[in-house]
């Protein structure tokens, strides 16, 4: 697509990386400043009228609200509508797959700070996207070209 790509893992604090390397799951307090930083990055891209892709484990609905609206989403329990003046328009792509498939991929990953045993805690924390969130769900059991095509279709058709 020629869009700037951001890996959210690059923006974790040293403390968060250390916790994950030690097999300690992150909590909301750990994640909120990180998510606000990611929102700020997306806000700058939006202000410049540039599209971007962010790879991020936005596991909870609240985390996705922070990505859309920034710190103001923390105070509000109400869903933030993308049509609002301050909210970003984000298409969330929920890459869905069985834990054993994802665990197999994690085992092949080298040099990453997240301990593979944290995968279960991520599944336990996961709140899959639902209406009125702007999202698509794509199966990780499809081939990479099929996954990319499905995401591109969603971007350009809707």
UniProtKB/TrEMBL annotation:
Gene3D superfamilies hit by this protein: P-loop containing nucleotide triphosphate hydrolases
Q: Which reaction does it catalyse?
A: D-gluconate + ATP = 6-phospho-D-gluconate + ADP + H(+)
Looking at the keywords, is Transferase present? Answer: yes
User: A biological process (GO) annotation for this entry?
Assistant: carbohydrate metabolic process
Q: Which InterPro entries match?
A: P-loop_NTPase, Therm_gnt_kin
| Keyword ATP-binding annotated | yes
The UniProt keyword set, sorted, is: ATP-binding, Kinase, Nucleotide-binding, Transferase
Q: List the GO terms this entry assigns under cellular component, sorted alphabetically.
A: cytoplasm
The biological pathway it contributes to is: Carbohydrate acid metabolism; D-gluconate degradation
Q: Which family does it belong to?
A: Belongs to the gluconokinase GntK/GntV family.
Which PANTHER family does this UniProt record tie to the protein?
Answer: GLUCONOKINASE-RELATED
Q: What's the protein called, per UniProt?
A: Gluconokinase
């Amino acid at each position: 697509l020629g869009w700037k790509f951001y890996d959210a893992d690059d923006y974790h604090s040293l403390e968060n990386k250390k916790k994950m390397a030690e097999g300690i799951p992150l909590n909301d307090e750990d994640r909120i400043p990180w998510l606000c930083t990611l929102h700020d990055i997306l806000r700058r891209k939006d202000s410049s009228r540039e599209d971007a892709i962010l790879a991020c484990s936005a596991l909870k609905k609240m985390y996705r609200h922070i990505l859309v609206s920034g710190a103001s989403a923390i105070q509000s329990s109400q869903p933030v509508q993308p049509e609002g003046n301050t909210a970003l328009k984000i298409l969330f792509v929920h890459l869905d797959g069985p834990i054993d498939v994802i665990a197999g991929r994690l085992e092949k990953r080298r040099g990453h700070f997240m301990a593979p045993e944290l995968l279960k805690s991520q599944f336990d924390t996961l709140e899959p996207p639902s209406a009125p969130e702007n999202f698509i769900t794509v199966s990780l059991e499809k081939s990479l070209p099929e996954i990319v095509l499905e995401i591109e279709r969603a971007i350009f058709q809707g």
